[in-house]
Design goal:
heterodimer, A: 356 residues, mainly alpha, 14 helices, B: 375 residues, Rossmann fold, 5-stranded parallel β-sheet, 15 helices, disordered N terminus, disordered C terminus
């Protein structure tokens, strides 16, 4: 009798906690919607909320509500940037969450296994050694960045596989490759002319200024394809937090889960950074903040962290393009400047250990 | 042979040696140099430097310097070393630089041991090098004089005069400066007659990357202003700020000018291919929302070659931009003929050999390349 009561009580506490987490997700979504509305009505062109609504109505329902110029500013410039910012934040955050999960390490981000430095190296190869096709250079850079990011992931995977996909092997192989590609980029920067150097350095700052609907579409497709498989393994990730042996004892195929998650978290990151350049920090910090707020249960963590990542990146970009308008501060820079102090504050306030 | 009487510090041994070594190298029509004559000059970094006039062993560390020397009829045989960037920049105009010793990648990244080893009398560079590298402190103890020249328009005449004084080409310096500033003044004078409403509003970009514009202090801004245009980005903070695309659409500029710094292809002397410039132009015209901009609707989007922006060819750049901005006002101005005159009578080169793409498109000329021209 007594025991049954305790179970009931535990169940009640559990469902209360679960409800709180669901509430948190809803609140974060609400915040995101509010931020989208704010971001859509802010900008160097004086196009306010009403006109934004008008422009959207005009395009969707073929009405004649605003001038062509306003419609262009809203549809072709502001909205793709906002959506790409959200998707990039979401993608980096969910990849970070998944990678921290499979590697059981709070220092891991999507870049720890060297994706960013590989992409930067690929971009530098295109910029410095590129075949001299100017107009096409834009695409050479994007394609090169993407290919090298995937190549890096494949190398890390291949190396780790030799040692049974252990989390340490993944991290160490990734870090080693990260240094290798960074060194390669440095060599290229050294042999680059002043002008090429300028282009390389500019690429290294992540920026959303070039956002187009085509880019948005590509990122959206990749994210939509990668999210469900990640979500499906949230229970496995929870089990793996207790250690590989424990997870194996609970029936998790640890090696297979690591492989799948590695693939499905690398793809979105590679896709995002080849369009935006390197945006650091979101992939590291969004998972942490989410974990501090709702705990380490991946069933909630995986869907919530992208919302926070989107909030974070969109907020940073909106600040970056409005603070000194019409000048734009690259979002990669803003993210670090506002993100780091905020993150440090959270770490100092938080007493709990991670992954509890 | 010693300069003690003038109260200078050391260095005599180098000078004697150099004078002996290089005397026959200079087979110019100029009067034979007087090796003993010491002059004191104030360079463009504001430093007083005492040096032997008409030095025979010189290291140049900036791409504009050998061009300017050539324009004053100073033999480039005197250049014994230079940096890789300077060699590359105008390789089509001055291929002889390729035979010089390389003393570094560019004026901020130098191999000082190598320079000292070459035993030059004089190193010519720009004020930025003095400020950022301490080159004078490193070389002067070895008895090498360091003199800074400045190639911004406001200092250009002074730089030419200084170069003329150092190499005993004062007359040539004056003549070239008059030629150089003459056209510039004419363009400026005619542009000043434009009323505010007549002035063309320009959105410039100064790198290959989209949306990185050029504000006050950038060469593009200077050129646009001299040509009578209004740079819509002039008031922004920072010399090359990145701007929000919607701002460009809202400001609706009349003309877009782009200098694609960082791109592999830069056009210029000896480069006749317009393909890469056309692709850059298309990239601008196809940006989201840009179809609303007047400059794009009217096709007034131009790519400029590095070779006419800044330095010794900036006067030509101003002429090209003036012609782009006000085709009617400058109907009689022919920038290419002016460039041709500069190349043929001042640089002493055959223009046909170095003809290239300097702006694209070039509406007042049908096409580029071997088109027969008067002049």
């Amino acid at each position: 009798m007594e025991e049954r009561l305790e179970t009931a009580e535990a169940e009640e506490i559990y469902s209360r906690l679960t409800a709180r987490k669901a509430l948190f997700i809803l609140a974060a979504l609400g915040g995101l919607v509010a931020l989208i509305l704010a971001a859509a009505s802010l900008g160097s062109a004086k196009v306010g909320m009403g006109e934004v609504a008008g422009a959207i109505g005009e395009r969707l329902f073929h009405l004649d509500l605003v001038s062509d110029k306003v419609e262009t500013i809203v549809w072709d410039i502001r909205l793709p940037r906002i959506v790409l910012g959200m998707l990039a934040g979401a993608g980096l955050a969910i990849s970070g969450t998944a990678m921290q999960g499979i590697m059981r390490n709070p220092l891991v981000s999507p870049y720890t296994i060297g994706i960013a430095s590989a992409a930067a190296f690929g971009a530098s190869v295109a910029i410095v050694l590129g075949a001299g096709l100017i107009g096409g250079e834009k695409y050479i850079v994007i394609i090169n960045a993407f290919i090298f990011a995937l190549l890096d992931a494949a190398l890390v995977y291949g190396l780790a596989r030799i040692r049974g996909m252990g989390s340490e092997t993944l991290i160490l192989a990734g870090i080693a490759l990260m240094y290798l590609f960074s060194a390669g980029t440095s060599v290229l920067q050294y042999i680059a002319t002043e002008e090429e150097l300028h282009a390389v350095v500019h690429w290294l700052f992540g920026s959303l200024t070039g956002a187009r609907w085509e880019n948005v579409l590509v990122v959206l497709i990749v994210l939509a394809a990668c999210l469900p498989p990640l979500m499906r393994h949230s229970w496995d990730l929870n089990a793996m937090l207790a250690g590989d042996e424990t997870a194996a004892a609970l029936g998790v195929n640890v090696e297979r889960v690591r492989t799948l998650i590695l693939i499905f978290s690398t793809l979105p990151v590679a896709t995002i950074i080849c369009f935006t350049g390197i945006i650091g920090f979101v992939g590291l910090v969004a998972p942490h903040i989410t974990r501090m707020l709702i705990g380490a249960d991946h069933r909630f963590l995986l869907p919530s962290s992208p919302i926070l990542g989107a909030l974070f990146l969109l907020g940073a970009d909106t600040l970056g393009r409005t603070a000194f308008q019409p000048a734009v501060i690259p979002v990669g820079v803003v993210v670090s400047f506002i993100g780091v102090p905020f993150f440090l504050y959270l770490i100092l306030r938080e007493r709990r250990e991670y992954f509890r | 042979m010693r300069y003690k009487g003038l109260g200078v510090i050391l260095l005599s041994a180098f000078v004697i040696l150099d004078a002996l070594l290089l005397e026959p190298g200079c087979a110019r029509k100029a009067s034979s140099p007087a090796p003993e004559e010491l002059i004191t000059i104030t360079d463009l970094a504001g430093r007083r430097v005492e040096l032997r006039q008409n030095p025979q062993r010189v290291v140049v560390l900036y791409s504009q310097i050998p061009i300017a020397m050539r324009c004053l009829n100073i033999s480039l045989d005197r250049i014994i070393g230079t940096d890789a960037f300077t060699i590359r920049q105008y390789s089509r105009l001055l291929p002889e630089l390729e035979e010089k010793e390389i003393v570094g990648r560019h004026f901020l990244d130098l191999d000082y041991e190598k320079i000292i080893d070459l035993e030059p009398e004089l190193v010519l560079t720009v004020p930025g090098a003095l400020k950022r590298t301490g080159i004078a402190e490193k070389l002067e103890p070895a008895g090498i004089k360091v003199v800074a020249l400045d190639f911004k328009i406001k200092s250009f005449r002074k730089s030419l005069e200084l170069l003329g004084k150092v190499f005993e080409r004062e007359e040539e310096a004056k003549e070239f400066a008059d030629f150089w500033f003459g056209k510039l003044e004419e363009v400026k004078r005619r542009a000043e007659e434009l009323s505010e409403e007549q002035k063309v509003r320009v959105y410039p970009e100064g790198t290959q990357r989209p949306y990185v514009t050029a504000s006050k202090g950038h060469t593009l801004d200077e050129i646009i202003t001299l040509a009578g245009g209004v740079n819509i980005s002039a008031g922004l903070k920072g010399r090359s700020p990145e701007v929000d695309p919607e701002w460009v659409v809202e400001r609706d500029p009349d003309v877009i000018l782009k200098y694609p710094m960082g791109a592999k292809y830069q056009g210029g002397f000896g480069k006749a291919d317009v393909g890469p410039f056309e692709e850059m132009r298309k990239e601008i015209m196809e940006r989201p929302g840009f179809d609303r901009i007047k400059a794009v609707r009217e096709g007034r989007v131009y790519i400029l070659s590095r070779d006419i922006l800044g330095g010794v060819f900036e006067n030509v750049g101003v002429c090209y931009v003036a012609k782009i901005l006000y085709p009617d006002l400058f109907k009689d101005l022919d920038p290419e003929a002016y460039l041709e005159e500069m190349v043929e009578s001042h640089l002493g080169l055959d223009f046909e050999e170095v003809r290239g793409v300097f702006v694209h498109p070039c509406p007042w000329i049908g096409h580029y390349g071997g088109k027969a021209r008067n002049g």
